[in-house]
Amino acid sequence: MASLRLAIKASLEQSQPPALPQQTTRKRGKGPPSKKSKATAAGPPSWTRGDVQLRPTRATLRGLNVQRPWAPMLLDGSKVIETRTYDIDKQKCFANEWFWVVETPGKKRQRGQRAHITGCIKFSSESVRYTSLAQWRADEDKHRIPAGSEYDWNGRGAMYGWRVEGAYALRSPLPRPDPKGVINSKPVTRTVPRGGWLA
């Protein structure tokens, strides 16, 4: 009888699925931290020249001068190419870096108008080199330079298009860099208040 019971017990043990390994819990503060907990403890990245975390903070960025009406177009996405007579990486390396957009009144400045910071922008390292008027005209909906205007390109000389990679507009303008320079300014620190971004 005893041998029969042992045989039944052995048969049942063989038919059971293998037991899962028991999970162990680590007490808080014990053992090395995981990669996930380490990243969480470090918090989000801060503003840097190569990238930017948009949140209420003090940011130190170079300023890029852009005339009105093109500055607002760059920030609202209706202008996706900024045109310049030099390549983006040939002069002062403007690619892959966040800049303050310093909106300037331009040649038709009215009394009391002054330059101010209206947002920030970042350009791709891949720019467009225009080699024909046909190519230039085909991109008019991207660079937003009207045909026949004083800023229109006549097909002679160098002309490049800087591709916008990212742009954010401010709800209210911030004071301009002083001095703002002809093309761009040295890094300047500004504080963006909470809720200060439109996007």
TrEMBL record:
Domain of life: Eukaryota
InterPro entries, A to Z: PUA-like_sf
Biased composition (Basic residues): 25-38
Ranges annotated as biased composition (Polar residues): 12-24
Chain intervals for the UniProt region annotation (Disordered): 10-51
Protein name: Uncharacterized protein
